[in-house]
Amino acid sequence: MDRIFQALADGTRRDMVERLVSGPASVSELAGSHSMTLQAVMQHLKVLEACGLVRTEKVGRVRTCAVQPDGLRLAEAWLSGRRTGWENRLDRLGELLEPDS
Amino acid sequence: MDRIFQALADGTRRDMVERLVSGPASVSELAGSHSMTLQAVMQHLKVLEACGLVRTEKVGRVRTCAVQPDGLRLAEAWLSGRRTGWENRLDRLGELLEPDS
């Protein structure tokens, strides 16, 4: 979980995830759509791959990247659990303050 | 957004958010429930406050901390948007592959 949130704490990596959500892409396609060097893209990909948000596969000379949704789901579930907990507490407070409503 | 994900990329800070979801707490209460020094708690609080996930207020000698839900909502919305995008793409792929279903 640390590594997922850490990977998402960078705007370029979030953009890369966003791009890959619309379909797999090669490393050069990712570099092109972000005006980055291949080396910079590879470094970000390494972070995204290490935490399981992205999977890459090399066929011949082309490395193709795809989003792995489980990491997104895990982080989303943590956040939505906390938000729900907070809303439930507000509801209980509301009931205590206005027992008739 | 960078700072929110960065703040959540630490297990202790996520635990502190989790604790504060169930209600406001003083710095010493937070320290006690995490077996941490006050100084360590203050450092984590600084990060959580800077990105807007937590608000602290000092009254007399006691600093009270409370969760600010907007940051959680923002991060959750980003993740759920990406997940939905991914699921929609899968649905479209499914329709392409099995047009009769």
From TrEMBL, chains A, B:
Pfam families per UniProt: HTH_20
SUPFAM superfamilies: Winged helix' DNA-binding domain (SSF46785)
InterPro entries membership: ArsR-like_HTH, HTH_ArsR_DNA-bd_dom, WH-like_DNA-bd_sf, WH_DNA-bd_sf
Residue ranges annotated for the HTH arsR-type domain, each copy included: 1-89
PROSITE patterns hit by this protein: HTH_ARSR_2 (PS50987)
PANTHER family according to UniProt: SLL0088 PROTEIN, TRANSCRIPTIONAL REGULATORY PROTEIN
Protein name: Metalloregulator ArsR/SmtB family transcription factor
